[in-house]
Specification:
The strands form eight sheets. Strands 1-19-21-22-18-14-17 form a seven-stranded mixed β-sheet, sandwiched between helices. A five-stranded mixed β-sheet has the order 9-6-8-7-10. By secondary structure, the chain is of the alpha/beta class. The two termini are about 30 Å apart. About 15% of the residues lie in helices and about 30% in strands. The relative contact order is 0.13.
């Protein structure tokens, strides 16, 4: 189900003024609510945010067990043991992992024991097999004879060449976690280690906020899918792949829709079809002022005049930023599904995703505000010439960040079509609206993309 975000009022004259980056982001996040929690199987819950505290029902490990393959012994029986004067013990049987009935180790006795097997009654320590002759009567053993190949290895005698202190090589019951301990707190993102812990304490399902379903549509009659042949005037569709991958990276389940031609009715129909599987819709292209800006046409009431009210609550606006000046945002459909319409130039599209779509996805996931946006740092500009930026625009330039040196170096130019440079960048350098030039050696804000 899509988040049922309420339609929300926007500042008067929204499409007739220049919005700041911060105002637009606040408007987006005001319309997004965390998805409703559901109960999921463990592997289906990977990447989701836990909505309940999980306590430990049973101690881990649930019993004293061996951390080595070796022999369970009484410490008094191996006191003073050496290679010259080994302790000779009677082997009374095997204790394998999963063993139920356990032999009792008495004076002068030992039991072969495997890693993870419960410590048998009477035993106080485990001596590794490498400290013994392995029951062969020879020198130090390098391993045990498999039980299936030589069941007689579970009987006879073993020579122990080293002493062992009490509890040596024994994992104590509850040494990992105790029953009643907090295993995982609400708000935890479930990765492989957290899934492992849940399984270890016996949880088959867990209550989480599901990963948002994000549908990405690119628009443009000039777009051709990778693998197909280009014809004159066409280019490959890279935006839908970039944004679908970015949505997955943000934690979402992404669905990529192949490029939609520049036809408003086709786009409207495609969006309606996709609403059933979308918690968030992202379009790219068609949001500027051209005659073929199909997204703007399709989602504006009459598809023409500046005075038209946005259909379905979608608003098209200009932002005081570069790249990414034209943006669209609103909610559509019966569930008021959020829709973000991004510009079509590849760098503009990706920068817009990082600034606005990623925070929306992570808000839908239920992550805290501190984890919604990419982290930022301050870094010193390392360049041969100043960075130039237009007045009254917040500029985002691609950079390569050196954490050890605390520097950032520009990658490529400022053009919004330079996708090759974007592939080699790991950060965005931010030039504020009131700054038109940043000199080499000056400090500036850097958004980390990795």
């Amino acid at each position: 189900m899509s988040s049922s975000a309420p339609q929300h009022p926007r500042p008067a004259g929204g499409r007739h003024r220049l919005w700041s980056v911060d105002e637009h982001l606040a408007d987006v996040l005001a319309a997004v609510r965390p998805l409703e929690p559901i109960e999921l199987q463990l592997l289906d819950a990977q990447g989701c945010v836990l909505v309940e505290d999980v306590t430990v029902p049973v101690a881990l490990p649930p019993f004293d067990n061996s951390s080595m393959d070796g022999y369970a012994v009484r410490t008094a029986d191996v006191q003073g043991a050496s290679e010259e004067f080994p302790a000779v013990l009677a082997v009374i049987g095997d204790v394998a992992a999963g063993s139920g009935e356990l032999p009792t180790v008495g004076p002068g006795q030992a039991a072969r024991i495997m890693t993870g097997a419960p410590l048998p009654p009477g035993a106080e320590a485990v001596v590794p097999v490498e400290w013994t002759d392995g029951g062969t009567g020879g020198g130090a053993a390098s391993g045990m004879t498999p039980a299936s190949a030589a069941p007689e290895g579970a009987a006879g005698e073993v020579r122990v060449h080293r002493a062992a202190e009490a509890r040596a090589h024994v994992r104590s019951r509850g040494s990992d976690v105790q029953a009643g301990d907090l295993a995982l707190a609400a708000g935890t993102v479930l990765g492989p280690p957290q899934i492992a812990l849940l399984a270890a304490i016996g949880r088959g399902t867990v209550r989480v906020r599901p990963r948002p379903r994000v549908v990405v549509l690119s628009t443009g009659s000039e777009l051709v899918q990778p693998g197909e042949a280009l014809t004159p005037g066409t280019i490959y569709d890279s935006n839908s792949f970039a944004l679908a991958a970015a949505a997955r990276d943000a934690g979402a389940i992404a669905y990529r829709v192949g490029a939609v031609a520049d036809d408003a009715e086709t786009l409207r129909s495609t969006i309606e079809d996709q609403l059933i599987r979308a918690d968030l819709l992202v379009t790219t292209g068609g949001v500027s002022v051209g005659a073929y800006d199909v997204v703007k046409e399709a989602l504006t009431a009459a598809g023409s005049g500046e005075g038209d009210e946005p259909a379905g609550g979608v608003d098209f606006r200009k932002l005081a930023m570069q790249p990414g000046k034209p943006q669209g945002f609103g909610t559509i459909g019966p569930d008021h599904t959020p829709l973000l319409a991004l510009p079509g130039n590849p760098v503009s599209s990706y920068v817009s995703f990082e600034l606005f779509v990623r925070p929306a996805i992570r808000t839908l996931m239920g992550l805290p505000e501190s984890e919604v946006s990419r982290p930022g740092v301050r870094a010193v500009l390392k360049a041969d010439e100043p960075l130039r930026s237009p007045a009254a625009r917040r500029q985002f330039l691609r950079g390569k960040y050196d954490a050890e040196a605390g520097t950032v170096t520009p990658v490529g130019g400022s053009g919004s079509h330079l996708i090759a440079a974007l592939a080699h960048a790991d950060s965005l350098m931010v030039v504020p609206e009131d700054v038109t030039s940043v000199e080499p050696g000056a400090e500036l804000e850097v958004i980390l993309l990795g």
